[in-house]
């Protein structure tokens, strides 16, 4: 059964799997000190932003699926006409996946600038004539990430609103409207 709802669920699974894989990689780096030089180079500019992008996309896609169900229940004729062919299902899927992906990327662009790779110098002095100097790559936070305004407004308030409160409110609304549609209407009762 290949309809747009099932395809959207597959897209959600891909987004969730990306988030889980990114989280597992990060937890291995932190818990087991398994950071390779490649991981250190990829972390600030790819792995860390992908983690945030995947989480945001997962939340947005969940809201998109709730919207799709709302449309299917409240406008069944329009919905069934819009998904007559497999191409129409794919187009409908892309109408959700492309905006979700683009909005998630744009919303998380600042994450790319929160950390950076630098050369850490480890100098060991064995005696007056022999010093050993080792350099290795390490990750540190940038000034942007340390900025109190950035932390308070973007990392706390804006993320709370965009990834938390607004999607949660939309999920409550869409699911309430879908659920209320299945309650049998009593004679004389006004339909909501």
From TrEMBL:
Annotated TM spans: 46-72, 157-176
Gene Ontology CC annotations of this record: membrane
Domain of life, per lineage: Eukaryota
PROSITE patterns tied to this protein: G_PROTEIN_RECEP_F1_2
Keyword Transmembrane helix set for record: yes
Limits of the G-protein coupled receptors family 1 profile domain: 1-192
SUPFAM superfamilies: Family A G protein-coupled receptor-like
Keywords: Membrane, Transmembrane, Transmembrane helix
Protein name per the record: G-protein coupled receptors family 1 profile domain-containing protein
């Amino acid at each position: 059964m290949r309809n747009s709802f099932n395809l959207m669920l597959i897209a959600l699974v891909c987004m969730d799997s990306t988030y889980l894989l990114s989280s597992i990689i990060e937890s291995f780096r932190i818990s087991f000190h398994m950071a390779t030089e490649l991981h250190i180079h990829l972390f600030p500019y790819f792995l860390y932003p992908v983690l945030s992008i995947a989480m945001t996309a997962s939340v947005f896609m969940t809201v998109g699926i709730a919207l799709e169900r709302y449309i299917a229940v409240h406008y069944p004729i329009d919905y069934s006409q819009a998904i007559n062919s497999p191409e129409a299902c794919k187009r409908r899927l892309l109408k959700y996946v492309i905006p979700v992906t683009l909005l998630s990327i744009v919303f998380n662009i600042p994450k790319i600038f929160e950390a950076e790779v630098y050369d850490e110098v480890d100098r060991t002095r064995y005696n007056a004539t022999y010093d050993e100097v080792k350099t290795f790559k390490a990750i540190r936070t940038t000034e942007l990430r340390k900025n109190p305004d950035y932390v308070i407004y973007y990392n706390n308030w804006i993320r709370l609103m965009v990834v938390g409160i607004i999607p949660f409110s939309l999920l409550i609304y869409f699911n309430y409207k879908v659920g209320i549609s299945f309650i049998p209407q009593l004679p004389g009762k006004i339909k909501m």
